[in-house]
Design brief:
Helix content is about 60%, strand content about 10%. It is α/β, with parallel strands linked by helices. The chain starts with 13 loop residues before the first helix and ends with a helix.
Length: about 725
């Protein structure tokens, strides 16, 4: 069975319920908003201010991005820059050398301020934890400077003669040192002047303690600086944004400047082979000045190598000159060509002589002696042929003479050929030796030239390196790098934290949703009846009418002049529902007293009498003032009457009159039994804060003893939404 709240005609719009909840719990929402906004504003003005100094660094392609190796004269160097290079530069900015450079200078420039109040108490708590080894590190002094301690320690007059000064000195700095205290006790008993060894021991221990504290502070400052320093790369650019936060705007700017200086120096050291040499010089006034000189070991190395190759080049040049002088400046290639050509000619002549020896007389000879003998031999052979034709006798003296001449000529030709062969062979052997010597000389000269070229190339290469390192040294001394500081830090004029404007926005943007959430949460967790929807959804009973809150004048009876119109309207609706049921007696009750059940019962009786009906108003209380001098209303007092007599009286009154109205006592106090005396019951519940469980138990009791529950009437209904706005919702 559906409850009345789930019926289509009685369903409540969600938006309207939300608005009603907001208006109903508007004071809770307002209190939350005021408290939350006040809390943020209190934080905005109580939290210590911090200022953020900012700087921008542009990373460009520089000498670090140049390709290695030599380029031809027609090629141009193209420097490339990758995103990894920009990321590397940001990591160099946050590296320890850059931070340590800034901390070293800040430790000399900044002077700690002694702490007081909460800060001093927190410092004492830290020292207490460190003394019990709950925290690492030595005990902290309250705003004292170690360099100043050193000046006090080496004050001869105080150091040697005033033991009380030593005790105060240690206690003042909160440095408990058992060994030093024992030594002080001994010195007090025996005198300071006679205990120089112990004094020196004390001096050394105190110095060690100060060094330990200084080192710990130094490391802590580096860590704090690294935590507060941020480096972010601007998207799609080569710009790195640096930011540093500090309570003092001046020191925020100064710290970021020192970090940039340390980064530039560290950047130069990263991309060079040299180093900075620091030398401390004192002037006539004793003021120390640090002179920094850039020492490039690579430049020295390259210069030494260039000088070495220059000397070797001079030695090789002297050897080449000496070689040319020993060979009279001749061209070995020309000599080699001439000797080779002559050797070929002589070898061809030898082969020609070999052909003559083999009988090949058709070979051309260039030797005139051989040609003469060969021609003479040819003539003699022709003459012999003629004589053979003339003389039939082969032994003719002329033929014999010719044969003898031919034989002598052949022997002379052979002898001439052999002599020519010997001369040519000797010449060939001589040319071969000369050619070999020329080849040896050529090889020697080529080796000298090759050595000369090698030393010359090395000399030029190292000389270029010397020039390059000289340029690098000049750039490093001038701190010219591939990173360009676009914007140096300036003194911030407004604190970055707390940002009061942002705190106001947060207070509004978070406070309003939070207040709405609080109101809705209160409405969700609310467990008391306030609206008609609460009665219908929680109790599951239809609401016949509801009576809103009406104005009451203090110290005056609101019912002196009769029932208010809103009460009469509710009574009229209840009377109409009773008539629809055809009943003549009604029991009106509430869970507890003060919810308006008696007033509603009197108003219903008054409304029925106005219609001309005879009405009996039965009550356990006195005469209600709301009835006044009303006619046709009989008052039936049930107080002190036994239950059976009450039942008979009510039954008789109901039969004799048109309507009987029974104003019953509170249901939670045992008044539910009166519901059985009437035909129907009407449940009255107040909207001033009756708990769900109390109303639910009262209604259960009413249903248990009553015959029919006509419905419910909500009294003192709240109107969380103003009338002018309710009509639009």
């Amino acid at each position: 069975m559906n409850s009345p709240a789930n019926l289509p005609g009685r369903r409540t719009d969600t938006a309207r319920r939300v608005v009603r909840a907001l208006f109903q719990w508007r004071y809770s929402a307002l209190i939350f908003f005021v408290c939350f906004f006040s809390f943020l504003m209190t934080l905005a003005y109580i939290l210590p201010e911090s200022f953020t100094a900012k700087a921008n660094v542009f990373v460009k392609a520089g000498r670090e991005n140049a390709p290695e190796g030599s380029l031809a004269s027609t090629e141009s160097i193209r420097l490339t820059l990758t995103p990894e290079d920009v990321i590397s530069e940001s990591m160099i900015m946050l590296s320890r050398p850059s931070l340590e450079y800034a901390v070293d200078i800040l430790e000399k420039e900044m002077r700690p301020v002694p702490k007081d109040g909460i800060s001093k108490s927190y410092l004492n708590f830290q020292n207490w934890c460190r003394s019990r080894r709950l925290l690492p590190g030595p005990l902290y002094t309250n705003g004292k400077i170690p360099e100043k301690f050193g000046d006090e320690v080496y004050s001869d007059e105080k150091f040697r003669y005033d033991s009380n000064w030593w005790k105060e000195w240690l206690l003042e700095r909160e440095m408990p040192l058992p060994q030093a205290q024992i030594l002080i006790a001994d010195l007090e008993g025996n005198g300071l002047k006679e205990n120089q060894t112990k004094i020196e021991d004390l001096k050394e221990k105190v110095s060690q303690l100060l060094d330990k504290e200084r080192l710990f502070r130094h490391e802590q400052l580096i860590q704090k600086l690294g935590n507060k320093l941020t480096a972010e790369i601007e998207p799609a650019t080569r710009v790195i944004n640096l930011a540093y936060e500090h309570p003092s705007p001046k020191w925020a700017k100064r710290t970021l400047e020192l970090v940039l200086e340390g980064y530039i120096e560290h950047h130069s050291n990263m991309h060079s082979l040299g180093k900075w040499d620091k030398k401390i010089v004192k002037d006539v006034n004793g003021k120390e000045t640090t002179i920094r000189t850039y020492v490039n070991s690579a430049n020295t190395f390259f210069q030494e190598e260039a000088d070495k190759h220059s000397k070797a080049l001079d030695d090789v040049q002297k050897e080449i000159t000496k070689f040319h002088l020993s060979h009279k400046g001749g061209d070995l290639d020309s000599q080699r060509s001439i000797l080779t050509q002559e050797l070929i000619q002589n070898e061809q002549a030898l082969r020609s002589l070999q052909g003559l020896k083999d009988g090949s007389e058709q070979l051309a000879l260039e030797s005139p002696e051989i040609a003469v003998h060969q021609q003479k031999l040819l003539n003699l052979k022709l003459e012999l042929i003629e004589k053979d034709a003339i003389y039939a006798n082969k032994d003719h003296p002329e033929i014999a003479k010719l044969e003898k001449q031919i034989k002598n000529t052949e022997e002379a030709l052979k002898e001439q050929i052999e002599q020519k062969r010997t001369v040519l062979q000797n010449r060939v052997d001589s040319l071969d030796i000369e050619l070999r010597n020329v080849e040896v000389d050529r090889t020697t000269l080529e080796n000298l030239v090759r050595t000369h070229d090698s030393h010359l190339a090395s000399f030029k290469r190292y000389l270029a390196k010397v020039e390059e390192e000289t340029i690098k040294s000049a750039m490093n001394e001038a701190q010219i790098t591939s990173a360009k500081v676009l914007e140096w830090p300036a003194v911030p004029n407004k604190p970055s934290f707390p940002n009061r404007f942002v705190m106001v926005l947060l207070g509004i943007l978070l406070g309003i949703p939070g207040a709405i959430s609080v109101a809705l949460m209160r409405a969700y967790m609310h467990s008391r009846i306030a609206t008609v929807e609460d009665v219908e959804e929680v109790l599951g009973v239809s609401v016949l009418s509801s009576i809103p809150r009406f104005k009451r004048i203090p110290f005056r009876n609101p019912f002196k002049n009769g029932a208010p119109p809103v009460v009469l309207n509710a009574a009229r609706l209840a009377l109409a529902a009773l008539d629809n049921e055809g009943r003549r007696s009604i029991h009106i009750a509430a869970s507890t007293r003060g919810e308006g059940s008696g007033t509603l019962a009197a108003a219903l009786s008054l409304e029925a009498s106005n219609d001309g009906r005879s009405v009996v108003f039965a009550t356990l209380d006195g005469f209600p003032s709301i009835l006044g001098n009303a006619e046709n209303i009989e008052i039936l007092q049930l107080a002190g009457v036994p239950m059976d007599a009450q039942r008979e009286a009510i039954k008789a009154a109901a039969e004799e009159n048109d309507l009987l109205v029974l104003s019953g006592p509170g249901l939670a106090g045992g008044g539910a039994s009166y519901a059985s005396l009437a035909e129907v019951s009407l449940f009255v519940v107040s909207g001033t804060g009756v708990h769900f469980d109390v109303a639910r138990r009262g209604l259960e009791q009413l249903r248990r003893y009553g015959k029919v529950v006509l419905g419910a009437v909500l009294t003192q209904r709240r109107n969380p939404i103003p009338r002018f706005l309710y009509r639009f919702i």
